[in-house]
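hiii so my PI (J.) wants the whole complex modelled not just the main chain, which honestly fair. so below is everything: two entries, each one labled with what it is. i double checked the lines twice but i was tired so who knows lol
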Amino acid sequence: MNLLPFFQWCEATTLGTAIRETTWAFAVIESVHLLALCVIGGSVLVVDLRLLGVGLRHQRINDLARDAQPWLNASLAVMLLTGVGLFLSEPTKCYYSTPFWFKMSSLALAIMFSYTVRRRVVFAEEGRISPMACTIVGVVSLALWFGVGAGGRWIGFSG
Amino acid sequence: MSLLSFCQWLADTPGSIALHESLFMYPLVESVHVLTLCLFVGMSTMLDLRLLGLTLRRVPLTDITNRLFPWMFAGFFVMVVTGVLLFYAIPVRSYQSIWFRMKVVLLICAGLNAWIFHATIYRSVRDWDLSTAVPPRARLAGVLSLVFWTGIIVFGRMIAYNWFDCDRPQSALVVTVAGCTAEQQGHK
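here's the output for the full assembly
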């Protein structure tokens, strides 16, 4: 399936054109994207570090997860919204960017993993999941989100 | 020696030129600088939100500070080192960037805010460690921290744009704030 025509259609949308042609738009949207990065980073790290047995290890995992989840959901929503805006301003560049495809693959995996396996593990009753399984889930989650962040930053350096 | 001539001298050092011209080192340093935001600002945001009673309400504040500070300090250290390297790679333009200057002012504000918090209200933390009724002064410190770091991140991102660079014609205000020289403005 060739996605290039779809990407070119995206580039011609009113929103994409408006962001591209307004001097401040990309910079402002990018800044909000970065601010949400901090929140998503904090809310993921607090729980993932705990899964690894460090950080807030005096707390129960499911307590931390319950507190962090709304912030993860909200910051992810802001990331996706601003991310779509950034994408619409330069879809053709993204189409030919390896980091872009790397980031999108990591993102799809990170979201799927976070809302299935990781969700079950962090919300499980205390002691039902072995420490080994917790460690693995924490490492996978951190690795996937790191891929999203590193790939995202590298889109700007390519092309 | 003025700060500007120091930056000009710095820009001519071999290390600065090498970092500026490197294909991978500069992007790598910048990526580390940005991604460490998650570690330092991410966790400091969680702490600020806890002060405001918006998350981790059942976690004692001292547990957060004791257990998360080592991670935050590590993140902060990496941010400072990579930040200094980014400045070292492009000294003159950074020094004359209004965004960089505003970022430095906010960094000082954020530092003072954290210092005042720890030197005053945090000393009585035992009295409100487990409480969600955090004293107003501590809440204020949380709000100020969120505001300062938001500004630091936004201004930091804006350094990348050349709208207010000294090698373009600028208004009197920008010329003053950025410290552009008459030479830079006159010959354009």
